[in-house]
Amino acid sequence: MKSVDIIVIGGGLSGSATALGLMRQGAGKVVLLDEQLPSQRLSRGNFGLTWFMCKGANNPAYAKWCRRAAMQWPDFAAELEEETGYNVELEWNGGAVHAFGEEEFRNYSESIAALKKVCGEVGLDYPVRMLNRSEFADIIPDMQLGEDVSGAMYTEEQGHVNPLKLLAALRCNFQKMGGKYHGSRSVHAILPHKNGTVTVKTSQGDYQCRKLVVAAGHGSSRLLASVGEKLHIYPQRGQLMVTERHERRLKVPLLSVRQTPDGTFMIGLSSEDTALDTRVTPEAMKSQAANAIRLFPMLGKLNWVRAWGAIRVMTPDGAPIYSRVQGHGNITVLALHSAVSLAPLQASAIASWILGSDEDEQISQFSNGRFHV
Ligand SMILES: Cc1cc2nc3c(=O)[nH]c(=O)nc-3n(C[C@H](O)[C@H](O)[C@H](O)COP(=O)(O)OP(=O)(O)OC[C@H]3O[C@@H](n4cnc5c(N)ncnc54)[C@H](O)[C@@H]3O)c2cc1C
Fold it and tell me: What is the pLDDT of residues 183-241, one digit of tens each?
């Protein structure tokens, strides 16, 4: 049996960013194990937003956490490129959520006021404002707005990345720093011992580690059930569509439409409570396309070339779970939606917290235990 310092189960964005952070902070021998099931393609099949806007309306801790992550993104991307040569294509041109009609515009204005108040209570700025139709048109001058667009919610301080390059850069950086990554290696069981070590049984041999991080997305529930922890996550499907390439026109990403640097438009906003079913549906495609064309009529002239579904790791309040397993302080579980946006914090604050060097007061508000009733 191989003996290492830390094992991270799950090589998606969450596990990979955390494993990288552990190496950066001198954690010793760290092994990242991933079984790469096709149904768990979440970290490759997402929208790539590095976003804080609208997050945490009912949860100041989460609003603050997302804002803190967004502030770290430009340096985080620069460091990844410097250390790996991967350009994750971060564009930091702001981000927007369009409004149709006066009522939606008013509702968004009110939600900004509410979030400013929530953030203000914890000493945090919330640099988001409403743009009227002509102000919105000014920030995306090459896109013609549909006639129903009344304006948009907007911030300068967020952006988007290429999620495929991000995942590759995280894993590459982790390995360059001496971490060991094993794809196609399924973990069957975790067995904690009285002395605090944990045996991890895999499809290709067993390991012993001092600390275990479970970041296996929807695979985490089964692994944790064996140590008596009920993980409070549920599957939520999102569907995305991609167009053929077009000359670059949209440099500010919207929540439902963005154009990548290579010219494709990505479209998506659906959320459905399904079981682990990644199929796309004509209903969602139709409604997303209609929404996108109502926003930018020129999209109706482009061919859609691909579509896919992926299953979000959702919690009842939408905020992450960062938790030590009850009775097994050396086992940590990480389960989150928004792992693109939160990647810089996984590699910094979460990694320090796992190593025990930083008992971050914010992290304690994201325990799995908050859902026990
Ligand atoms: C349509 C859509 C759009 C999205 N857009 C955004 C966005 O714009 N911005 C944003 O921040 N977030 C977005 N997300 C969410 C984001 O994609 C997820 O938060 C993120 O991918 C979760 O990463 P993860 O590592 O936690 O999980 P996963 O990517 O599911 O990784 C878990 C890994 O664990 C492995 N695993 C599971 N069980 C085992 C086992 N027993 N042994 C070994 N390995 C195992 C799996 O193979 C998998 O690779 C979006 C999600 C969807 C569906």
Answer: 989 999 999 999 999 999 998 999 999 999 999 999 999 999 999 999 999 999 999 99
* DSSP label at residue 93: S
Question: Using an 8 Å Cβ cutoff, are 149 and 256 in contact?
Answer: no
Asked if residue 216 has its Cβ within 6 Å of ligand 1, the reply is yes
Residue 217 CA to ligand 1 center (angstroms) comes to 6
For residue 33, give the nearest of 7, 3, 14, 4 by alpha carbon. Answer: 7
| Token pair of 53 as six digits | 């806007």
> From CA 256, how far away is CA 22, in angstroms rounded?
34
Residue identifier of the C-alpha nearest atom 9 of ligand 1: 49
Q: Residue 249 CA to chain centroid, in angstroms?
A: 26
Torsion, Cα 93 94 100 105, to 10 degrees, reads -140
pLDDT, tens digit, for every residue of 90-137? 999 999 999 999 999 999 999 999 889 888 887 888 999 999 999 999
The topology (CATH level 3) of 234-314 is D-Amino Acid Oxidase; Chain A, domain 2 (3.30.9)
| Residue 293 burial class via C-beta count within 10 angstroms: exposed 0-12, middle 13-18, buried 19 and up | middle
In whole angstroms, what is the distance from residue 235 CA to residue 278 CA? Answer: 10
Ligand 1, residues 43, 53, 202, 308: which to mutate, most atoms within 8 A of Cβ?
43
Q: 45 vs 36, 48, 242, 262, 373, CA distance in Å?
A: 13, 9, 11, 17, 33
CATH 3.50.50.60 positions along the chain are: 2-48+164-233+317-371
User: In the chain, where does the domain assigned CATH 3.30.9.10 lie?
Assistant: 234-314
Q: Is the CB of 52 inside a 6 Å radius of any atom of ligand 1?
A: no
